[in-house]
Amino acid sequence: MEQLGKLTFFCGKMGAGKSTLSKKLAVEHQAVLISEDEWLAAHYSEQLQSFDDYRKYSHIIKPFIKEHVQQILRAGTSVVMDFPANMVRQRAWFKLLCDEVGCEHELVYLNVSHEQCLEQIAKRRIEQPERAQFDTEEIFMLVTQYFEPPSEDEELNVSIVSELKD
After folding, report:
1. Is residue 90 helix, strand or coil?
2. Burial category of 105 from C-beta neighbours within 10 Å (exposed 0-12, middle 13-18, buried 19 and up)
3. C-alpha 14: how far from its chain's center?
4. pLDDT in tens, 21-80
5. Which residues constitute the domain of residue 133?
6. Total number of domains constituting the chain
7. What is the CATH number of the domain that holds 21?
8. Which has the closest alpha carbon to 112: 10, 12, 22?
């Protein structure tokens, strides 16, 4: 029987710490880290001027990412995906990706308050000025209106994190 990798992915509001935790878990689990922000910046940095642009190009890269991740999982290597799984339909995409391969998965749900997220976003604006255009309270509120916490009927293996530890 072949040994498959495990897929780890994340749910949490903007600024909850998904990218920070994804990097940490990739190292801990000796997994391949795949970041949506990095893929989008590498391929579409000039085109990303608005939230609608993000949604468009995020959708475009998904088929390539899916096949790439499935190949890695089939090779027996675990993958940590720093991609949002903040809506039911996004999580369904991750679940389908895993079901097609037959691999284990873990959804890490960062259940962090609005206040903590906004504090982190303000800090990130200073530390990463290139993100300042999108790291605003207005964008946070826009994105958060679409946020859907995971539910049992999605049949996902969920781990809940309420506070990030350094």
Report:
1. helix
2. buried
3. 10
4. 999 999 999 999 999 988 888 888 888 777 788 889 888 999 999 999 999 999 999 999
5. 7-161
6. 1
7. 3.40.50.300
8. 12
